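Need dTDP-4-dehydrorhamnose 3,5-epimerase's 3D structure for a figure. Predict it.
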Amino acid sequence: MILKPTDLPGIAEITPTRFGDHRGYFSEVFKDHWFRENVADVGFVQDNQSLSREVGTLRGLHFQLEPFAQGKLVRVLNGSIFDVAVDIRTGSPDYGRWVGVTLTAEEGNQLWIPPGFAHGFLTLEANTLIHYKVTAPYSGAHDRGLRWNDPSIAIAWPDVSAGFTLSAKDEVQPFLTDLEPAFTYTSDDT
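Structure prediction for dTDP-4-dehydrorhamnose 3,5-epimerase:
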């Protein structure tokens, strides 16, 4: 597996090795021991899958409060996405900064997003299928979000000819300046 740090400490792109021939390929997409030693010493409790039928489907930016804060390992099974993480840890030197990585089924790359970051993605192809592992189960009472187009964050979402399609919930999430503190940065977070 190839581990590539991003511009935000704690966020990492992981590309599993593929062994292929004329028939196709084989790839170990997740190895618990390797992940714990090289990325984060966490356990995953649930696998989720979502299908976005249209190009330009934007989901996020989402996070959950403790004790259900989620780390996410995101990959694409079909299609491609622009995957984004925003640092929302109070006191972090990177508070409000974002990083984005294009994830594709063809490349097989993944993005690790630990708790303390809001997460969202934009589909770049029709019928994009996303699979992600999470470190805590979903809790509606702890579910929160951040505005996808907050000018103080200024995410450079890719242009998609179809425009953006969002849920009603994602259209009205708070701006970063209105977000109640949810996570606190510590020196152990890096």
